[in-house]
């Protein structure tokens, strides 16, 4: 049992601590193996104190997912990509450096296909936001920016699954570079037949 540290932290700092502890525990045990008591113990809180900050176990899961998205976007845009292709390459490099987080996301995204999963709405909205963002970046780079955006998501997700399953033989960054060379065809060449 952990000693309860009663030091009062500012709300934002306490929430950050809760998300970090939860992320670690989910990576170790999965969402269904996560106990609110373990998160509370890891933060020096009681379960009611923890619930004060996150509302519920479902709220805690969404907070973890939101934080991961924020950190990923900040990391990608710190690299100052100037095109859709560079933005995608930066995201793939980021993901290649954090296989446990990518695995966590892949599992949760698959589990959340069932409507009663606590992250069902989160992943549905995230998918829509991602396609919209990539579509905006694809304006002028493709005849059908939304189709290109969906293809990018499908390609990234598929390559990530192969990389997670066969890490010794699949290099995520190299595979992305090869595939993206075919995916990002200049608009003028799209109509040509090989």
TrEMBL record:
It comes from Paractinoplanes hotanensis. This is TetR/AcrR family transcriptional regulator. Residues 12-72 form the HTH tetR-type domain. It comes from the Bacteria. The keyword Transmembrane does not apply. Keywords: DNA-binding, Repressor, Transcription, Transcription regulation. The keyword Transferase does not apply. Residues 35-54 bind DNA. The lineage of its organism: Bacteria, Bacillati, Actinomycetota, Actinomycetes, Micromonosporales.
